[in-house]
Automatic annotation (TrEMBL), chain A:
Gene3D superfamilies noted in UniProt: P-loop containing nucleotide triphosphate hydrolases
Superkingdom of origin: Bacteria
Protein name according to UniProt: Putative ABC transport system ATP-binding protein
The keyword Transport belongs to this UniProt entry's keyword annotation: yes
UniProtKB/TrEMBL annotation, chain B:
Transmembrane segments: 30-50, 274-299, 326-349, 361-380
Similarity field: Belongs to the ABC-4 integral membrane protein family.
Organism the protein comes from: Kribbella kalugense
Record-annotated ABC3 transporter permease C-terminal domain positions: 278-390
Transmembrane helix keyword on record: yes
PANTHER family cross-referenced by the UniProt entry: ABC TRANSPORTER PERMEASE YTRF (PTHR30572:SF4), MEMBRANE COMPONENT OF TRANSPORTER-RELATED (PTHR30572)
UniProt lineage: Bacteria, Bacillati, Actinomycetota, Actinomycetes, Propionibacteriales
Gene Ontology terms: cellular component: plasma membrane
GO-annotated molecular function: transmembrane transporter activity
Principal location class: membrane
InterPro entries: ABC3_permease_C, MacB_PCD, Macrolide_Exporter_MacB
Protein name (database record): Putative ABC transport system permease protein
Length: 236, 397
């Protein structure tokens, strides 16, 4: 069985010769809980976009579940996203004015699932994140932590093998953030591969695997408990 | 090991629901841009509806009045001089086989009618004094508003029947007197407007013998009215001139008043085409409004587009979503416009006493136009939305 995520010498170059990601090779297996850690501007969002198939590498290959993303058509890559990947964003991206249940059900809108089934599974997903009492609430009636839980429910409603979380606790206070992290850990122990992007060292150190990145390059892995700064990495 | 990568189908109800949700989030803007379309459609439906109603009214009028009335009058001779019909022409026309009834009026030269003898001679009000035969009314399908018409007895005496407009102008009613040809005449009746003989509306009708005795009338008819059997009207029309004046048929003007009414309707059609064009311009402006709304909507909703892409929406599905929104928006305007246009038609027709007719093809055409317009207006924004790269869309909050 191949790794779920496989990057081989992936490079992303933007117009004006800006290299956002330089020759990155990583492999993440099924069931892992890993963190891409780095300061802002380090290229971690670009890396997440490549892994999330939202963008394609300028050179090198990105394989998700064995599919070479660069080779896929728009239809295929969209199908891949709807079947294999769940996204959780820092800004939640919930639809304003629409109740939590419908927001979550939208997670299956493009998977060809009938509406009644979507709603049934949305209710189950909301229960899984502990929000069954908030189904009929609109986003502005929910706390930040609750909104992020709704977003997580939407990401996991299709039971994707891979969950990508971009700074999931970035807009939350520490208590709500800890709750969200507990939820993600729980999902991981149920078998979902989870990749978290964060610049929060505290969260990073709590993860089983860290992938430090800076200036668009992967850094050698720092041992647990020690900060993933460049100097220390070289020493170790 | 790897699954087949085939995107799920977005069902039509889901597509409509997604489009609706997009519109519901911005109700005021949606209402205003739908209004643009509605005004255009309403204008076009109302123009078509009002002209159809007026045509329907004319058709009903013609049906009740008949289209088999012909008139003949003296024209001019080859030298451009006024001529007159022979005195016996009325009787001769009556002898044409398919003619069922015939009557005549004659202009009484140099006679004018005034409210009293104190009115200056110049203020005739344009009212013509006509000598009328007693059987005039049934022949032209005329109706009395009040009083009685001339009969063999009354026609001998200074009595007058006024056309609708003339009565109004003189402020006269039956049993009052008017000053006609320097004598007092008693008003015996007032006519209703006569659509087939509008020249009677502003006329004062006196008896044929009375005109000869009291007003120095020469006895030559100036308008012969003839009813013919419906199927033979054209044939009668051909021989009418020869019959009325066998010596100089070229000096007779023959016409069919119902044709004149229809021609007036045709003249209105030109105006209608102009108004319809204005409606089309309004509709076009409405379409530009929809396109504008949709372009802004795409710019504002990049985050939503990015999210939908991350949820697995294909470019085509994003395109369909915005196209569906534009179509729903313009359909909203189209239906509203058709409704407003119909109400305007009904209101206007009611105020004119016409039957209200809104042709179904006008409604269907209006809706079709909005659908075409909606797809054209929505196409560019939809393509823009679909082309947006997911990462770019997600990076804007």
């Amino acid at each position: 069985m191949t790794a779920l995520i496989e990057l081989e010498r992936a490079t992303k170059r933007y117009a004006g010769d800006v290299v956002a990601l330089d020759d990155v090779s990583i492999s993440i297996g099924r069931g892992e809980l890993a963190g891409i850690v780095g300061p802002s501007g380090s290229g971690k969002s670009t890396l997440l976009n490549l892994i999330g198939t939202l963008d394609r590498p300028t050179s090198g290959t990105v394989r998700i579940d064995g599919h070479d993303v660069g080779e896929l058509s728009d239809r295929e890559v969209s199908a891949l996203r709807s079947q294999l990947i769940g996204f959780v964003f820092q800004q939640f991206h919930l639809t304003a004015g629409v109740v939590a249940l419908d927001n979550v059900a939208d997670g299956l809108l493009y998977a060809g699932v009938p509406r009644a089934e979507r709603l049934r599974r949305a209710a189950a997903a909301l229960q899984q994140v502990g929000l069954s009492h908030r189904m009929e609430h609109r986003p502005h009636e929910l706390s930040g932590g609750e909104r992020q839980r709704v977003a997580i429910a939407r990401a996991l409603i299709g039971h994707p093998p891979l969950l990508l979380a971009d700074e999931p606790t970035g807009n939350l206070d520490s208590a709500a953030g800890a709750g969200v992290m507990d939820l993600l850990r729980g999902l991981n122990s149920d078998g979902t591969t989870i990749l978290i992007i964060t610049h929060d060292q505290q969260i990073a150190t709590s993860l089983p695997r860290r992938l430090p990145i800076s200036d668009g390059r992967m850094q050698p892995i720092a041992p647990p408990g020690i900060g993933a700064t460049k100097e220390i990495c070289h020493e170790s | 090991m790897s699954r087949e990568l085939i995107p799920g189908r977005l069902s039509l109800p889901d597509l409509v629901r997604v489009g609706q949700a997009g519109l519901r989030a911005r109700p005021l803007r949606v209402l205003l841009s739908a209004l643009g379309i509605a005004i255009g459609i309403a204008a076009m439906v109302a123009v078509v509806g009002i002209s159809s109603s007026s045509r329907e009214d004319l058709n009903r009028q013609l049906q009740s009045l008949g289209t088999n009335l012909l008139t003949a009058g003296p024209g001019k001779n080859l030298f451009g001089e006024d001529v007159h019909l022979p005195a016996e022409s009325v009787a001769m026309v009556g002898r044409i086989e398919p003619v069922t009834s015939v009557s005549a009026t004659a202009l009484v030269q140099d006679a004018s009618v005034y409210r009293t003898d104190k009115i200056p001679a110049g203020q005739t009000g344009g009212i013509q004094v006509l000598a009328a035969q007693v059987d005039l009314l049934p022949t032209i399908s005329g109706q009395l508003a009040e009083g009685v018409f001339l009969n063999e007895a009354i026609a001998q005496y200074p009595a007058v029947v006024l056309g609708a407009q003339a009565a109004d102008h003189l402020g006269a009613a039956p049993h009052q007197q008017v000053y006609l040809g320097k004598q007092w005449f008693t008003v015996v009746g007032v006519l209703q407007p006569a659509p087939l003989a509008p020249e009677l509306d502003n006329a004062a009708l006196v008896g044929w013998p009375a005109a000869e005795k009291l007003l120095g009338f020469d006895g030559y008819p100036t308008t012969i009215y003839a009813r013919a059997v419906e199927d033979d009207v054209t044939a009668v029309q051909k021989v009418l001139a020869t019959t009325a004046n066998p010596e100089a048929p070229n000096e007779v003007d023959v016409s069919r008043p119902s044709d004149a009414l229809a021609a007036q309707q045709a003249a209105d059609a030109t105006l209608n085409a102009l108004l319809l064009g204005l409606g089309a311009v309004a509709l076009l402006v409405g379409g530009v409004g929809v396109a504008n709304t949709m372009v802004i909507s795409v710019l504002e909703r990049r985050g939503e587009i990015g999210l939908r892409r991350s949820l697995g929406a294909t470019r085509a599905q994003i395109r369909s979503q915005f196209l569906a929104e534009a179509l729903l928006l313009s359909t909203l305007g189209g239906v509203g416009g058709a409704l407003i246009g119909s109400l305007v038609t009904i209101g206007y027709a009611f105020s004119r006493g016409w039957p209200a007719v809104v042709p179904p093809w006008a409604l269907a055409g209006g809706l079709l136009a909005t659908l075409v317009l909606g797809s054209i207006a929505g196409l560019y924004p939809a393509i823009r939305a679909a082309r947006l790269s997911p990462t770019e869309a997600l990076s804007t909050p």
